[in-house]
Amino acid sequence: MMKQPLKILFLANWQWKKGDIGAEYAFFKHFIVKPEVRYLGTFNIPLWTSLERRFLKVYLLQAVIAFFLSYKYDVVLAYASQSGLPLACLFRIFFRRKPLLAVFDVETLGRPSGWRLKLVRFAAARFDALVYASSWQKDFYKANVPEVMEKCRFIPLGIGRYDYRKASYDEPIFYAALGHHDQRYRDWRTLLLAHAKVADRIQLVIFGKEFLTEKERAGAPLPPNVIFVPYIPSTELAKRMANALFCVVPLPERQQSQGQLTALFCMALAKALIGAEVKGLLDYIQPNDNGLFYRTGDPGDLAEKIIYMVDHLDETIRMGQAGYEKVLKEHTEEIFGQRWEKILDELLRSNNKTRGDGN
Hints:
CATH class of the largest domain: Alpha Beta
CATH topology of the largest domain: Rossmann fold
Distance between the termini: 24 Å
Largest sheet: 6 strands, parallel
Helix content: 25-40%
Oligomer: single chain
CATH architecture of the largest domain: 3-Layer(aba) Sandwich
Strand content: 15-25%
């Protein structure tokens, strides 16, 4: 007998838009049995939204609405703990409400301490599954939130496939950095200081930015031979990056899972990577296989890695191909979606068995 489609309430940590994205979202479109999905994002309400983001650090209004909708669904899937934690608190306070709750933890539960950690531990005890994308996160859970250890699941991120023009290295080449982010999520200072040492050898193209403010540069001067390309859709970006020799992922260490989608996008285009040696990238870059690490915050070390890539063209191309093959083997959207389907199916079967045993 064919199993029934899962009914999923999906809480996204981005702004709500009218309509239901349903089973077309990347989590779900590769499920073998297509689920029924209700999408609920965050809200843009003056003053209240600012309060949630700056002080509460959670999406409380979204959680309240989800609480009243949840009885209609087999499972609530929260993308990010800012959505999952307040809903878990409501489920614990109003203990008769028993919907399954799975949380995809993209920021390591907000890295709490003090009284916030106590609240997180209270809420996390109500999680039915906690899914994480960087293996180091489990060490954080073990040390700070041991209640979730039996509920943890590691799923490496996946990415879609892109059609792109193959590189022609007889044309001018460059190396690329991606991101519209400010200095909290991109270490632009280290990248610019490193590029100043190699600007006579190769051009740097920064995609996703029109410019870098002095604050974003943390006072670093803007070196020569840098081009900025404002945001363009990912399909166009893939074409524009054809002649990138490699990509740099310049991250600060924030003790959270970050930078993986940027790394995977570059890998999907067969580009070798130079990444900051931060925890979020350790599962995605294998040194001397698909890329190199540089010491976080060290422009001299980054400059040396850039020169190595420029001077060893065959090796750089080989690492790019290895990254592409790694994506096909471990990080496609198909693999990612089917891993999620397996986890949610296991949750539902376990829940049904528990209820059956209690009768």
